[in-house]
Amino acid sequence: MSSLPNLLEGALVTIRLTFFSLLLGLVLGVPLAFGQTYGPKIIRKIIGVYEKVVRSIPLLVILFLIYYGLPRVGIKFPSFIAAVIGIGIRSSAYQSQIYKGAIQSISGSQMKAALSLGMSKLESFRSVILPQSIRIAIPPIANESAIVLKDTSLAYALGVIELLRQGGYIISTTYRPLPIYLTVAAVYLVMTLTINMTLGRFEKKLKIPGIGIEERVR
Amino acid sequence: MSEDKKTILKIEDLHKSFGGNEVLKGVSLSLNKGENKVIIGPSGTGKSTLLNNINRLVPPDEGRIYLDGQEITAGNINKMRQEIGFVFQDFGLFNHLTALGNVRVGLLKVKKMNKKDANELAMKELRRVGLEENADQYPAELSGGQKQRVGIARALAMQPKLILFDEPTSALDPELIGEVLNVMKNLAQEGMTMLVVTHEMGFARTVSDEIIFMEHGHIVEQGPPKQLFNDPEVERTREFLFKLTELYGEGEE
User: Fold this and answer.
1) Does B199 reside within a domain?
2) What confidence tens digit (pLDDT) does each residue in B234-253 have?
3) pLDDT at A214 over 80
4) Which residue pairs, CB below 8 angstroms and at least 24 apart, start in B220-224?
5) In this model, does residue A2 exceed pLDDT 70?
6) pLDDT band at A212; cut points 50, 70, 90
7) What is the pLDDT of residues A3-38, one digit of tens each?
8) Is B88 among the domain residues?
9) CB within 8 Å: B92 and A109
10) B136 touching A, CB under 8 A?
11) How far apart are CA B165 and CA B173, in angstroms?
């Protein structure tokens, strides 16, 4: 029981890792999705290759490349930052797919209709495409957030003192791996469920007939 | 020239190709204020392209288009589009907005009206198409005919000089077509200037001032419905109208 404060401290680091990784994934993912939807062919190709490459390399290898590999060419990051960059880059590839899908699921005739009212392209996107794509993107984003949260445990390998490593520290002094790892697992579970519940509630609140899950099932 | 005879739309020698395929091969026509012209013709003859060229949703390759005396083939595209209503075959309703929201959004975002005025005007247009009761419903909750009437109300709300209808009833179940045609008929009687692509012969015969028969990117023949139905100059017109009537019926008077 006395180990709980340490675990919670680790959980806090895990939450920070998750937050910043998702944020980096968002900041990179949105322009990637835009480029792939509206960009010229060459840009779309480049982004497609980026996504494929990033999604094909194990996250642990990406993390090692950034943390152990890049210093050899003079680029050195602290372990926390390196972890955020690695996890964030990986998430950007997945997030951009989510946003791309959400944007493209809004029919072209709605864009045409918006333009025909005299809206600029930007205004059409802002008033018509965006409000619908956000709603469509919420469930897959909840999923992606849970995945990123769990994957932050790989930052362990870079020496970031997150939830899993805190657990490891406690085990090395108490020699009780089973209860400690079970507790660690429970904390992950609670955090993952919280993410899903929060976004689920958000989804319900924004729900509009005909947009979202129902429509995709039909 | 009296006020009634003012030319609203004038198209001169319009050309458009997709790839190597020339869809419009020099089309010219004009539409006076309050006039209602119907374009008919086999599919793939460039009818939709012609409408899309007018408000430059698809830019034309060659030719000039004038709206109310002003050339619109160049110049401020968003301003021009405000003045030309467009009704789509598949409605193009904004699914995240209610019926009222759909009609109002152009007033708020394009005309920058305040919310109260926009609401009032939007409700007025919904009333005009008989959908006052459905103002708070989302497109997914409306029937096809109701959706298209929202589409028409949305175009009307912008108070355009002219409305283009691109096969407005082609996506509808047969029993829903009547309610949309009725709305269009009323608009025509109220003096709205309309250019309509449709296969609805009843509407063409009884409502339009002139029928334009297009084929292979050309206008084959145009004239008052009576003349085209009873005494066309070109044999091909008679043939096509006969086929259409056979297929879609004479329509209601």
Assistant:
1) yes
2) 999 999 988 887 777 665 54
3) no
4) B220/B41, B222/B29, B222/B37
5) no
6) low
7) 788 899 999 999 999 999 999 999 999 999 999 998
8) no
9) yes
10) no
11) 18
Query: Do residues B119 and B230 share a domain?
Result: no
Residue with tokens 């025509």: B188
* Residues of the domain holding B11: 3-83+160-248
Residue B99: inside a domain: yes
pLDDT at residue B2 in the model = 47
Q: Please give the residue of chain B at the shortest CA–CA distance from A131.
A: B96
Q: Are residues B138 and B204 in the same domain?
A: no
Tell me which residues of chain B, numbers 95 to 134, contact chain A at a CB-CB cutoff of 8 Å: 95-96, 105-106, 109-110
Interface test with B, best of A103, A106, A107, A116 (most B CBs within 10 A): A116
Q: Quick check: A80 and B21 in contact, CB under 8 A?
A: no
CATH number where B29 lies: 3.40.50.300
Q: Which domains does chain A have, with CATH numbers?
A: 4-217 (1.10.3720.10)
If you measure CA to CA, which chain B residue comes closest to A124? B109
Region label for A159, one of left (φ > 0), alpha (ψ between -120 and 50) or beta (otherwise) = left
The distance of A6 to chain B (nearest Cα, Å) reads 46
User: Residue A216: is its pLDDT beyond 60?
Assistant: no
Q: How far is CA A153 from CA A160, A171, B4, in A?
A: 9, 16, 76
Chain A touched by B78 (CB under 8 Å): yes
- Tell which of B159, B176, B197 closes a domain: B159
Q: What is the pLDDT of residues B76-105, one digit of tens each?
A: 899 999 999 999 999 999 999 999 999 999
A–B interface: beta-carbon pairs under 8 A: 81
Average the pLDDT over B145-173 and give the result. Answer: 96
Distance CA B55, CA B65 (A): 9
Spatial distance between the Cα atoms of B198 and B206, rounded to a whole number of angstroms? 13
CA R_g for chain A: 20
Nearest neighbour of B141 by CB, restricted to A113, A114, A209: A209
**Given A112, A115, A210, which is nearest B139 (Cβ)?**
A210
State whether residue B82 sits within 8 Å of chain A by CB.
yes
Give SS3 for B205: helix
- Are B180 and B243 found together in one domain? yes
Q: Structurally, how many domains does chain B consist of?
A: 2
Q: Is B145 within the bounds of a domain?
A: yes
Q: Which residues of B touch A107 (CB under 8 A)?
A: 90, 92
Residues of A with CB under 8 A from a CB of B: 106-107, 109-110, 112-120, 123, 127-128, 131-132, 135, 208-211, 215
Does one domain contain both B181 and B152?
no
Which of the two residues, B247 and A2, has the higher pLDDT score?
Answer: B247
> Same domain for B101 and B75?
no
